[in-house]
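Ticket reopened. Same input as before:
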Amino acid sequence: MGTATATATSAGLAFAAIDYLGVVSILAYAPGATAALAIFIGGIFVVLIAAIFSELNGLFPTAAGIRLYLGRAIGNRTALAVTFTYMTTVILVIAADAFLIGAAVRHVLNEPAALAYVWIVVLLALALGANLRGVRIAGWVQTVVTYTVLMGTSILSVLALFHVGGSFRRPLDLFGGGTFSGIQAIAFALFLYAAFEWVTTTAEEARTPKVITRALFIAPVLIWIVSTVFALALSHLVRYSTLHSSAYPQLLLGRAALGTVGELWMLALTVLTALNTFNGGFLVASRFIYAAARENNLPRQFARLNMNAVPWLAVTTLAGVSAIVAAIVFATGQWLLLVSVGAAIECGIYAIGSLCLLRLRSRVDRKRPFKLFAGVPLAGIGAVLFSVLFVATAFADPKDSRRFSVAPFAVIAVLGAVSTLYVLLIVPRLQRAAEQRASAARPRRRPARS
Amino acid sequence: MAGWQELSEALDDYTVSCNSNERLRKMQRDWTRVLHFICSDTGQPFTMDVDHGEIVATVEGHVGVPDIVVTTTSETFCDMFWGDLNPVQRYLRGEIVVKGSQEDVMRLDAISYVIWPES
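Engineering reply: fixed in the latest deploy. New output:
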Protein backbone atom coordinates (compact mmCIF):
# COMPACT_ATOMS: atom_id res chain seq x y z
CA MET A 1 0.00 0.00 0.00
CA GLY A 2 1.40 3.36 -1.07
CA THR A 3 0.77 6.91 0.16
CA ALA A 4 -2.20 7.64 -2.17
CA THR A 5 -4.07 4.52 -1.08
CA ALA A 6 -3.24 5.01 2.60
CA THR A 7 -4.38 8.65 2.38
CA ALA A 8 -7.63 7.57 0.70
CA THR A 9 -8.14 4.94 3.40
CA SER A 10 -7.60 7.52 6.15
CA ALA A 11 -9.84 10.16 4.53
CA GLY A 12 -12.46 7.53 3.62
CA LEU A 13 -12.68 6.26 7.20
CA ALA A 14 -13.12 9.83 8.46
CA PHE A 15 -15.46 11.25 5.85
CA ALA A 16 -18.81 9.47 6.34
CA ALA A 17 -22.36 10.71 5.71
CA ILE A 18 -22.56 11.73 9.38
CA ASP A 19 -19.91 14.39 8.68
CA TYR A 20 -22.51 16.41 6.76
CA LEU A 21 -24.49 16.50 10.02
CA GLY A 22 -21.30 17.26 11.93
CA VAL A 23 -21.08 20.52 9.96
CA VAL A 24 -24.61 21.40 11.14
CA SER A 25 -23.51 20.92 14.77
CA ILE A 26 -20.53 23.22 14.15
CA LEU A 27 -22.87 25.83 12.68
CA ALA A 28 -24.94 25.70 15.90
CA TYR A 29 -21.90 26.99 17.80
CA ALA A 30 -20.06 28.86 15.03
CA PRO A 31 -22.55 30.45 12.63
CA GLY A 32 -21.65 31.55 9.13
CA ALA A 33 -18.02 31.71 8.15
CA THR A 34 -16.89 31.32 11.76
CA ALA A 35 -17.54 27.60 11.18
CA ALA A 36 -14.55 27.69 8.83
CA LEU A 37 -12.47 29.11 11.67
CA ALA A 38 -13.60 26.26 13.95
CA ILE A 39 -12.72 23.69 11.28
CA PHE A 40 -9.31 25.32 10.82
CA ILE A 41 -8.54 25.32 14.57
CA GLY A 42 -9.78 21.74 14.77
CA GLY A 43 -7.41 20.92 11.90
CA ILE A 44 -4.45 22.37 13.81
CA PHE A 45 -5.29 20.16 16.79
CA VAL A 46 -5.56 17.21 14.38
CA VAL A 47 -1.96 17.83 13.29
CA LEU A 48 -0.94 17.17 16.91
CA ILE A 49 -3.07 14.00 16.94
CA ALA A 50 -1.52 12.89 13.63
CA ALA A 51 1.95 13.33 15.10
CA ILE A 52 1.05 11.43 18.28
CA PHE A 53 -0.47 8.50 16.37
CA SER A 54 2.46 8.51 13.93
CA GLU A 55 4.87 7.97 16.80
CA LEU A 56 2.66 5.30 18.40
CA ASN A 57 2.19 3.55 15.04
CA GLY A 58 5.94 3.60 14.44
CA LEU A 59 6.44 1.88 17.80
CA PHE A 60 3.80 -0.80 17.11
CA PRO A 61 3.14 -0.98 13.34
CA THR A 62 0.37 -3.56 13.54
CA ALA A 63 -3.42 -3.80 13.37
CA ALA A 64 -3.28 -4.66 17.06
CA GLY A 65 -1.31 -1.45 17.72
CA ILE A 66 -4.01 0.26 19.74
CA ARG A 67 -4.23 -2.72 22.12
CA LEU A 68 -0.46 -2.83 22.41
CA TYR A 69 0.23 0.79 23.22
CA LEU A 70 -2.84 1.17 25.42
CA GLY A 71 -1.93 -2.04 27.25
CA ARG A 72 1.66 -0.97 27.87
CA ALA A 73 0.69 2.54 28.90
CA ILE A 74 -2.41 2.06 31.06
CA GLY A 75 -2.62 -1.69 31.75
CA ASN A 76 -4.32 -4.52 29.93
CA ARG A 77 -7.72 -4.39 31.62
CA THR A 78 -8.13 -0.65 31.23
CA ALA A 79 -6.94 -0.96 27.64
CA LEU A 80 -9.57 -3.58 26.94
CA ALA A 81 -12.36 -1.47 28.47
CA VAL A 82 -11.24 1.59 26.49
CA THR A 83 -10.98 -0.42 23.26
CA PHE A 84 -14.47 -1.86 23.70
CA THR A 85 -15.86 1.66 24.22
CA TYR A 86 -13.87 2.91 21.22
CA MET A 87 -15.29 0.15 19.03
CA THR A 88 -18.83 1.22 19.90
CA THR A 89 -18.17 4.37 17.86
CA VAL A 90 -17.83 2.11 14.81
CA ILE A 91 -21.33 0.74 15.48
CA LEU A 92 -22.62 4.28 16.02
CA VAL A 93 -21.15 5.41 12.70
CA ILE A 94 -22.52 2.36 10.83
CA ALA A 95 -25.97 2.90 12.40
CA ALA A 96 -25.85 6.64 11.75
CA ASP A 97 -24.84 6.18 8.12
CA ALA A 98 -27.55 3.56 7.55
CA PHE A 99 -30.09 5.96 9.03
CA LEU A 100 -28.86 9.02 7.14
CA ILE A 101 -28.66 7.27 3.78
CA GLY A 102 -32.08 5.68 4.32
CA ALA A 103 -33.55 9.09 5.18
CA ALA A 104 -31.87 10.73 2.16
CA VAL A 105 -33.07 8.07 -0.30
CA ARG A 106 -36.61 8.26 1.10
CA HIS A 107 -36.56 12.06 0.81
CA VAL A 108 -35.45 12.08 -2.82
CA LEU A 109 -37.92 9.35 -3.80
CA ASN A 110 -40.60 11.34 -1.97
CA GLU A 111 -41.75 8.31 -0.02
CA PRO A 112 -43.57 8.26 3.37
CA ALA A 113 -41.28 8.82 6.37
CA ALA A 114 -41.80 5.28 7.67
CA LEU A 115 -40.18 3.86 4.53
CA ALA A 116 -36.83 5.31 5.61
CA TYR A 117 -36.47 2.44 8.06
CA VAL A 118 -37.14 -0.06 5.28
CA TRP A 119 -34.23 1.49 3.36
CA ILE A 120 -32.06 1.29 6.49
CA VAL A 121 -32.81 -2.43 6.87
CA VAL A 122 -32.21 -3.02 3.14
CA LEU A 123 -28.83 -1.24 3.30
CA LEU A 124 -27.71 -3.14 6.38
CA ALA A 125 -28.94 -6.43 4.90
CA LEU A 126 -26.94 -5.76 1.72
CA ALA A 127 -23.84 -4.93 3.77
CA LEU A 128 -24.37 -8.04 5.92
CA GLY A 129 -24.85 -10.29 2.87
CA ALA A 130 -21.76 -8.92 1.11
CA ASN A 131 -19.64 -9.33 4.26
CA LEU A 132 -20.86 -12.88 4.94
CA ARG A 133 -20.02 -13.87 1.37
CA GLY A 134 -16.54 -12.47 1.90
CA VAL A 135 -17.01 -9.78 -0.75
CA ARG A 136 -14.29 -7.15 -0.42
CA ILE A 137 -14.13 -3.89 -2.25
CA ALA A 138 -10.80 -3.74 -4.01
CA GLY A 139 -8.37 -1.17 -2.68
CA TRP A 140 -8.38 0.85 -5.89
CA VAL A 141 -12.21 1.03 -5.89
CA GLN A 142 -12.15 2.33 -2.33
CA THR A 143 -9.55 4.92 -3.35
CA VAL A 144 -11.63 6.07 -6.33
CA VAL A 145 -14.79 6.23 -4.19
CA THR A 146 -13.10 8.33 -1.50
CA TYR A 147 -11.61 10.83 -3.93
CA THR A 148 -14.94 11.01 -5.83
CA VAL A 149 -16.85 11.84 -2.64
CA LEU A 150 -14.30 14.47 -1.60
CA MET A 151 -14.06 16.04 -5.07
CA GLY A 152 -17.83 15.88 -5.68
CA THR A 153 -18.63 17.59 -2.37
CA SER A 154 -15.99 20.28 -2.99
CA ILE A 155 -17.10 21.01 -6.57
CA LEU A 156 -20.77 21.36 -5.64
CA SER A 157 -19.87 23.53 -2.64
CA VAL A 158 -17.67 25.83 -4.74
CA LEU A 159 -20.40 26.09 -7.39
CA ALA A 160 -22.91 26.85 -4.64
CA LEU A 161 -20.68 29.49 -3.11
CA PHE A 162 -19.36 31.37 -6.09
CA HIS A 163 -21.64 30.64 -9.03
CA VAL A 164 -25.06 30.44 -7.37
CA GLY A 165 -24.37 32.32 -4.14
CA GLY A 166 -22.37 35.08 -5.83
CA SER A 167 -19.88 35.18 -2.95
CA PHE A 168 -17.08 36.36 -5.20
CA ARG A 169 -18.97 39.64 -5.52
CA ARG A 170 -19.72 40.04 -1.79
CA PRO A 171 -17.19 37.89 0.09
CA LEU A 172 -17.66 39.75 3.37
CA ASP A 173 -21.29 38.61 3.47
CA LEU A 174 -20.00 35.21 4.41
CA PHE A 175 -18.94 36.55 7.79
CA GLY A 176 -22.36 37.79 8.75
CA GLY A 177 -24.94 35.85 10.69
CA GLY A 178 -23.41 35.37 14.11
CA THR A 179 -20.32 35.06 16.24
CA PHE A 180 -18.01 32.25 17.18
CA SER A 181 -19.28 30.79 20.42
CA GLY A 182 -17.44 28.26 22.45
CA ILE A 183 -14.96 25.46 22.37
CA GLN A 184 -17.77 23.08 21.46
CA ALA A 185 -17.49 24.32 17.88
CA ILE A 186 -13.87 23.12 17.81
CA ALA A 187 -14.80 19.79 19.38
CA PHE A 188 -17.50 19.23 16.76
CA ALA A 189 -14.97 20.27 14.11
CA LEU A 190 -12.64 17.56 15.42
CA PHE A 191 -15.44 15.08 14.78
CA LEU A 192 -15.15 15.79 11.04
CA TYR A 193 -11.62 14.39 11.14
CA ALA A 194 -12.49 11.58 13.58
CA ALA A 195 -11.44 8.05 12.67
CA PHE A 196 -8.70 9.26 10.28
CA GLU A 197 -6.27 7.61 12.72
CA TRP A 198 -7.83 4.18 12.08
CA VAL A 199 -5.53 3.97 9.06
CA THR A 200 -2.94 2.78 11.59
CA THR A 201 -4.79 -0.58 11.64
CA THR A 202 -3.55 -1.10 8.07
CA ALA A 203 0.08 -0.60 9.13
CA GLU A 204 0.94 -4.19 8.14
CA GLU A 205 -0.15 -3.48 4.56
CA ALA A 206 1.95 -0.33 4.21
CA ARG A 207 5.27 -0.51 2.40
CA THR A 208 6.96 1.38 5.23
CA PRO A 209 5.78 3.09 8.46
CA LYS A 210 6.40 6.42 6.68
CA VAL A 211 3.45 5.70 4.37
CA ILE A 212 1.09 5.72 7.37
CA THR A 213 2.74 8.87 8.74
CA ARG A 214 2.25 10.68 5.41
CA ALA A 215 -1.39 9.56 5.23
CA LEU A 216 -2.00 10.78 8.79
CA PHE A 217 -0.81 14.26 7.80
CA ILE A 218 -2.27 14.51 4.27
CA ALA A 219 -5.78 13.12 4.88
CA PRO A 220 -6.74 15.84 7.43
CA VAL A 221 -5.74 18.52 4.89
CA LEU A 222 -8.15 17.04 2.34
CA ILE A 223 -10.93 16.83 4.94
CA TRP A 224 -10.21 20.40 6.04
CA ILE A 225 -10.59 21.74 2.47
CA VAL A 226 -13.79 19.79 1.74
CA SER A 227 -15.44 20.52 5.09
CA THR A 228 -14.59 24.22 4.92
CA VAL A 229 -16.11 24.83 1.49
CA PHE A 230 -19.12 22.66 2.40
CA ALA A 231 -19.71 24.57 5.68
CA LEU A 232 -19.37 27.94 3.94
CA ALA A 233 -21.75 26.95 1.14
CA LEU A 234 -24.25 25.45 3.55
CA SER A 235 -24.34 28.46 5.84
CA HIS A 236 -24.51 30.79 2.82
CA LEU A 237 -27.39 29.15 0.93
CA VAL A 238 -29.48 27.27 3.53
CA ARG A 239 -31.07 28.80 6.63
CA TYR A 240 -29.91 27.24 9.91
CA SER A 241 -33.53 26.92 11.11
CA THR A 242 -34.07 24.50 8.20
CA LEU A 243 -30.81 22.64 8.77
CA HIS A 244 -31.08 21.66 12.42
CA SER A 245 -34.28 19.70 11.87
CA SER A 246 -33.04 17.92 8.76
CA ALA A 247 -31.19 14.58 8.51
CA TYR A 248 -29.92 15.42 5.01
CA PRO A 249 -28.33 18.92 4.96
CA GLN A 250 -26.21 17.93 1.96
CA LEU A 251 -29.36 17.36 -0.13
CA LEU A 252 -30.72 20.75 0.90
CA LEU A 253 -27.47 22.35 -0.27
CA GLY A 254 -27.57 20.37 -3.53
CA ARG A 255 -31.12 21.53 -4.22
CA ALA A 256 -30.35 25.14 -3.26
CA ALA A 257 -27.32 25.14 -5.57
CA LEU A 258 -28.40 23.22 -8.66
CA GLY A 259 -32.01 22.12 -8.11
CA THR A 260 -32.88 18.48 -8.75
CA VAL A 261 -29.49 17.82 -10.39
CA GLY A 262 -27.70 19.06 -7.26
CA GLU A 263 -29.94 17.00 -4.99
CA LEU A 264 -29.28 13.81 -7.00
CA TRP A 265 -25.56 14.69 -7.12
CA MET A 266 -25.39 14.85 -3.31
CA LEU A 267 -27.55 11.73 -2.94
CA ALA A 268 -25.13 9.79 -5.14
CA LEU A 269 -22.18 10.96 -3.02
CA THR A 270 -24.05 10.08 0.18
CA VAL A 271 -24.70 6.55 -1.06
CA LEU A 272 -21.03 6.26 -2.10
CA THR A 273 -19.89 7.09 1.45
CA ALA A 274 -21.75 3.94 2.54
CA LEU A 275 -19.32 1.79 0.55
CA ASN A 276 -16.45 3.01 2.69
CA THR A 277 -18.37 2.98 5.97
CA PHE A 278 -19.92 -0.43 5.54
CA ASN A 279 -16.85 -2.04 3.99
CA GLY A 280 -14.30 -0.48 6.36
CA GLY A 281 -16.51 -0.36 9.45
CA PHE A 282 -17.75 -3.93 9.27
CA LEU A 283 -14.26 -5.18 8.49
CA VAL A 284 -12.48 -3.33 11.32
CA ALA A 285 -15.12 -4.08 13.96
CA SER A 286 -15.79 -7.72 13.02
CA ARG A 287 -12.09 -8.56 12.92
CA PHE A 288 -11.64 -6.86 16.28
CA ILE A 289 -14.47 -9.01 17.69
CA TYR A 290 -12.91 -12.12 16.14
CA ALA A 291 -9.51 -11.35 17.70
CA ALA A 292 -11.12 -10.57 21.08
CA ALA A 293 -12.97 -13.90 20.99
CA ARG A 294 -9.79 -15.78 19.99
CA GLU A 295 -8.03 -14.04 22.86
CA ASN A 296 -10.84 -15.31 25.14
CA ASN A 297 -12.02 -11.79 25.97
CA LEU A 298 -15.39 -12.41 24.28
CA PRO A 299 -17.42 -15.64 24.10
CA ARG A 300 -15.68 -18.04 21.71
CA GLN A 301 -18.80 -18.24 19.52
CA PHE A 302 -17.82 -14.85 18.08
CA ALA A 303 -14.75 -16.44 16.48
CA ARG A 304 -16.78 -18.99 14.53
CA LEU A 305 -16.07 -18.82 10.83
CA ASN A 306 -18.31 -19.61 7.91
CA MET A 307 -17.11 -21.32 4.72
CA ASN A 308 -15.89 -17.96 3.38
CA ALA A 309 -13.60 -17.58 6.42
CA VAL A 310 -15.76 -14.76 7.74
CA PRO A 311 -16.56 -14.53 11.48
CA TRP A 312 -20.28 -14.79 10.76
CA LEU A 313 -21.61 -14.27 14.28
CA ALA A 314 -19.49 -11.14 14.74
CA VAL A 315 -20.67 -9.67 11.42
CA THR A 316 -24.32 -10.61 12.04
CA THR A 317 -24.24 -9.16 15.57
CA LEU A 318 -22.76 -5.93 14.23
CA ALA A 319 -25.52 -5.62 11.64
CA GLY A 320 -28.20 -6.46 14.22
CA VAL A 321 -26.94 -3.96 16.80
CA SER A 322 -26.56 -1.30 14.08
CA ALA A 323 -30.17 -1.92 12.99
CA ILE A 324 -31.37 -1.53 16.60
CA VAL A 325 -29.40 1.69 17.12
CA ALA A 326 -30.67 3.02 13.77
CA ALA A 327 -34.24 2.13 14.84
CA ILE A 328 -33.79 4.05 18.10
CA VAL A 329 -32.44 7.06 16.17
CA PHE A 330 -35.29 6.74 13.68
CA ALA A 331 -37.92 6.58 16.45
CA THR A 332 -36.49 9.41 18.57
CA GLY A 333 -35.19 11.69 15.80
CA GLN A 334 -32.02 12.24 17.90
CA TRP A 335 -29.54 11.87 15.05
CA LEU A 336 -27.45 14.83 16.18
CA LEU A 337 -26.95 13.06 19.54
CA LEU A 338 -24.82 10.53 17.64
CA VAL A 339 -22.60 13.42 16.50
CA SER A 340 -22.13 14.57 20.11
CA VAL A 341 -21.43 11.07 21.42
CA GLY A 342 -19.02 10.32 18.55
CA ALA A 343 -17.24 13.67 18.95
CA ALA A 344 -16.88 13.24 22.72
CA ILE A 345 -15.57 9.66 22.48
CA GLU A 346 -13.03 10.70 19.85
CA CYS A 347 -11.83 13.60 22.04
CA GLY A 348 -11.52 11.12 24.91
CA ILE A 349 -9.51 8.71 22.75
CA TYR A 350 -7.23 11.55 21.64
CA ALA A 351 -6.64 12.49 25.30
CA ILE A 352 -5.81 8.84 26.09
CA GLY A 353 -3.55 8.64 22.99
CA SER A 354 -1.64 11.70 24.28
CA LEU A 355 -1.32 10.03 27.68
CA CYS A 356 -0.01 6.85 26.02
CA LEU A 357 2.73 8.80 24.25
CA LEU A 358 3.72 10.48 27.53
CA ARG A 359 4.01 7.16 29.37
CA LEU A 360 5.66 5.21 26.55
CA ARG A 361 8.40 7.81 26.17
CA SER A 362 9.80 6.59 29.49
CA ARG A 363 8.62 2.96 29.39
CA VAL A 364 9.51 1.79 25.87
CA ASP A 365 13.09 2.22 24.75
CA ARG A 366 12.80 1.30 21.10
CA LYS A 367 13.69 2.92 17.79
CA ARG A 368 10.96 5.32 16.68
CA PRO A 369 10.62 5.84 12.90
CA PHE A 370 8.75 9.07 13.72
CA LYS A 371 9.39 11.05 16.87
CA LEU A 372 7.24 14.03 17.84
CA PHE A 373 9.41 17.10 18.45
CA ALA A 374 8.99 18.28 22.05
CA GLY A 375 6.82 15.22 22.48
CA VAL A 376 6.50 15.25 26.27
CA PRO A 377 5.21 18.83 26.66
CA LEU A 378 3.07 18.61 23.51
CA ALA A 379 1.52 15.30 24.57
CA GLY A 380 0.88 16.81 28.01
CA ILE A 381 -0.88 19.74 26.38
CA GLY A 382 -2.82 17.29 24.19
CA ALA A 383 -3.97 15.24 27.19
CA VAL A 384 -5.33 18.36 28.93
CA LEU A 385 -6.74 19.97 25.77
CA PHE A 386 -8.63 16.91 24.53
CA SER A 387 -9.92 16.17 28.05
CA VAL A 388 -11.42 19.68 28.15
CA LEU A 389 -12.92 19.17 24.68
CA PHE A 390 -14.32 15.80 25.81
CA VAL A 391 -16.14 17.46 28.72
CA ALA A 392 -17.31 20.35 26.54
CA THR A 393 -18.81 18.03 23.92
CA ALA A 394 -20.20 15.48 26.36
CA PHE A 395 -22.41 18.17 27.89
CA ALA A 396 -23.25 20.09 24.70
CA ASP A 397 -26.59 20.21 22.95
CA PRO A 398 -25.58 19.48 19.34
CA LYS A 399 -28.15 21.82 17.80
CA ASP A 400 -28.54 24.67 20.26
CA SER A 401 -25.56 26.54 21.73
CA ARG A 402 -27.75 28.13 24.42
CA ARG A 403 -28.67 24.80 25.95
CA PHE A 404 -26.81 22.33 28.12
CA SER A 405 -27.42 18.62 27.68
CA VAL A 406 -26.36 15.61 29.74
CA ALA A 407 -27.60 13.13 27.12
CA PRO A 408 -24.22 12.62 25.32
CA PHE A 409 -22.40 12.12 28.63
CA ALA A 410 -25.11 9.74 29.84
CA VAL A 411 -24.74 7.58 26.71
CA ILE A 412 -20.93 7.53 27.03
CA ALA A 413 -21.13 6.79 30.78
CA VAL A 414 -23.43 3.82 30.13
CA LEU A 415 -21.16 2.50 27.33
CA GLY A 416 -18.05 2.96 29.51
CA ALA A 417 -19.69 1.37 32.57
CA VAL A 418 -20.92 -1.64 30.58
CA SER A 419 -17.44 -2.11 29.03
CA THR A 420 -15.68 -1.79 32.41
CA LEU A 421 -18.06 -4.16 34.23
CA TYR A 422 -17.74 -6.65 31.38
CA VAL A 423 -13.94 -6.54 31.57
CA LEU A 424 -13.90 -6.86 35.37
CA LEU A 425 -16.61 -9.50 35.80
CA ILE A 426 -17.03 -11.53 32.61
CA VAL A 427 -13.56 -11.58 31.02
CA PRO A 428 -11.84 -13.35 33.98
CA ARG A 429 -14.50 -16.10 33.81
CA LEU A 430 -14.01 -16.51 30.06
CA GLN A 431 -10.24 -16.73 30.55
CA ARG A 432 -10.59 -19.38 33.28
CA ALA A 433 -13.00 -21.43 31.17
CA ALA A 434 -10.62 -21.25 28.18
CA GLU A 435 -7.67 -22.43 30.31
CA GLN A 436 -9.70 -25.38 31.61
CA ARG A 437 -10.81 -26.31 28.09
CA ALA A 438 -7.28 -26.10 26.73
CA SER A 439 -5.75 -28.26 29.47
CA ALA A 440 -8.56 -30.83 29.28
CA ALA A 441 -8.66 -31.01 25.49
CA ARG A 442 -5.32 -32.60 24.73
CA PRO A 443 -1.71 -32.81 25.88
CA ARG A 444 1.09 -30.80 24.29
CA ARG A 445 1.70 -32.10 20.76
CA ARG A 446 5.24 -30.90 20.19
CA PRO A 447 7.68 -33.76 20.90
CA ALA A 448 10.07 -33.20 23.80
CA ARG A 449 13.74 -32.71 22.90
CA SER A 450 15.78 -35.87 23.45
CA MET B 1 16.13 -21.96 20.05
CA ALA B 2 14.85 -24.44 17.49
CA GLY B 3 16.89 -25.49 14.47
CA TRP B 4 15.69 -26.13 10.94
CA GLN B 5 15.26 -29.86 11.70
CA GLU B 6 12.76 -29.14 14.48
CA LEU B 7 10.99 -26.51 12.39
CA SER B 8 10.80 -28.88 9.46
CA GLU B 9 9.15 -31.58 11.59
CA ALA B 10 6.62 -29.06 12.88
CA LEU B 11 5.92 -27.85 9.33
CA ASP B 12 5.43 -31.42 8.08
CA ASP B 13 2.86 -32.10 10.79
CA TYR B 14 1.16 -28.75 10.11
CA THR B 15 1.01 -29.51 6.39
CA VAL B 16 -0.64 -32.89 6.98
CA SER B 17 -3.13 -31.39 9.47
CA CYS B 18 -4.06 -28.59 7.07
CA ASN B 19 -4.27 -30.59 3.87
CA SER B 20 -6.31 -33.39 5.45
CA ASN B 21 -8.88 -31.05 6.97
CA GLU B 22 -11.75 -30.88 4.47
CA ARG B 23 -13.52 -27.99 6.17
CA LEU B 24 -10.34 -25.93 6.14
CA ARG B 25 -9.60 -26.78 2.49
CA LYS B 26 -13.10 -25.68 1.51
CA MET B 27 -12.86 -22.50 3.58
CA GLN B 28 -9.49 -21.57 2.09
CA ARG B 29 -10.39 -22.63 -1.48
CA ASP B 30 -9.77 -19.11 -2.82
CA TRP B 31 -6.60 -18.51 -0.78
CA THR B 32 -3.42 -18.73 -2.83
CA ARG B 33 -0.44 -17.07 -1.19
CA VAL B 34 3.33 -17.17 -0.80
CA LEU B 35 4.30 -16.85 2.85
CA HIS B 36 7.77 -15.95 4.03
CA PHE B 37 8.80 -16.71 7.61
CA ILE B 38 11.77 -15.29 9.51
CA CYS B 39 13.02 -16.61 12.85
CA SER B 40 13.96 -13.47 14.76
CA ASP B 41 16.39 -15.32 17.06
CA THR B 42 18.25 -17.55 14.57
CA GLY B 43 17.69 -15.60 11.36
CA GLN B 44 16.41 -18.81 9.74
CA PRO B 45 14.21 -18.02 6.72
CA PHE B 46 11.68 -20.41 5.20
CA THR B 47 8.85 -20.29 2.70
CA MET B 48 5.38 -21.80 2.53
CA ASP B 49 3.51 -22.01 -0.75
CA VAL B 50 -0.28 -22.23 -0.47
CA ASP B 51 -2.34 -23.00 -3.57
CA HIS B 52 -6.14 -22.77 -3.22
CA GLY B 53 -5.88 -23.63 0.46
CA GLU B 54 -3.47 -26.55 -0.04
CA ILE B 55 0.05 -26.27 1.34
CA VAL B 56 2.08 -27.43 -1.65
CA ALA B 57 5.59 -26.71 -0.39
CA THR B 58 7.54 -25.65 2.69
CA VAL B 59 11.18 -25.00 1.94
CA GLU B 60 14.22 -23.54 3.65
CA GLY B 61 15.15 -20.06 2.47
CA HIS B 62 12.99 -17.44 0.79
CA VAL B 63 11.48 -18.29 -2.59
CA GLY B 64 9.29 -16.02 -4.71
CA VAL B 65 7.60 -12.73 -3.89
CA PRO B 66 5.80 -12.91 -0.53
CA ASP B 67 2.19 -11.91 0.07
CA ILE B 68 2.73 -12.28 3.81
CA VAL B 69 5.87 -12.08 5.95
CA VAL B 70 5.72 -13.53 9.47
CA THR B 71 8.45 -12.90 12.02
CA THR B 72 8.81 -14.42 15.48
CA THR B 73 11.18 -16.67 17.43
CA SER B 74 11.94 -20.20 16.25
CA GLU B 75 10.39 -21.63 19.44
CA THR B 76 7.14 -19.74 18.84
CA PHE B 77 7.06 -20.99 15.23
CA CYS B 78 7.51 -24.57 16.40
CA ASP B 79 4.78 -24.28 19.04
CA MET B 80 2.50 -22.56 16.52
CA PHE B 81 2.93 -25.24 13.84
CA TRP B 82 2.40 -28.01 16.43
CA GLY B 83 -0.79 -26.25 17.55
CA ASP B 84 0.48 -25.73 21.08
CA LEU B 85 -0.18 -22.01 21.23
CA ASN B 86 -2.84 -19.53 20.25
CA PRO B 87 -1.31 -17.32 17.50
CA VAL B 88 -3.74 -14.43 18.11
CA GLN B 89 -2.66 -14.09 21.73
CA ARG B 90 1.00 -13.83 20.69
CA TYR B 91 0.12 -11.46 17.85
CA LEU B 92 -1.83 -9.16 20.17
CA ARG B 93 1.15 -9.13 22.55
CA GLY B 94 3.40 -8.07 19.68
CA GLU B 95 5.40 -11.31 19.83
CA ILE B 96 4.38 -12.36 16.32
CA VAL B 97 4.86 -9.66 13.69
CA VAL B 98 3.03 -10.00 10.38
CA LYS B 99 3.45 -7.96 7.22
CA GLY B 100 0.41 -8.42 4.96
CA SER B 101 -3.25 -7.53 4.61
CA GLN B 102 -5.60 -7.73 7.60
CA GLU B 103 -7.56 -10.36 5.75
CA ASP B 104 -4.49 -12.56 5.33
CA VAL B 105 -3.52 -12.12 8.97
CA MET B 106 -6.95 -13.42 9.98
CA ARG B 107 -6.83 -16.27 7.46
CA LEU B 108 -3.48 -17.36 8.85
CA ASP B 109 -4.90 -17.53 12.35
CA ALA B 110 -8.08 -19.18 11.06
CA ILE B 111 -5.99 -22.17 9.95
CA SER B 112 -4.86 -22.84 13.52
CA TYR B 113 -8.34 -22.18 14.85
CA VAL B 114 -10.02 -24.65 12.49
CA ILE B 115 -7.44 -27.42 13.06
CA TRP B 116 -7.05 -26.89 16.81
CA PRO B 117 -10.13 -25.03 18.09
CA GLU B 118 -9.01 -25.45 21.71
CA SER B 119 -5.51 -23.99 21.24
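The helical segments of chain B are 4-19, 22-27, 74-82, 87-92, 102-115. The mean pLDDT of chain B is 89. Please confirm and we'll close it.
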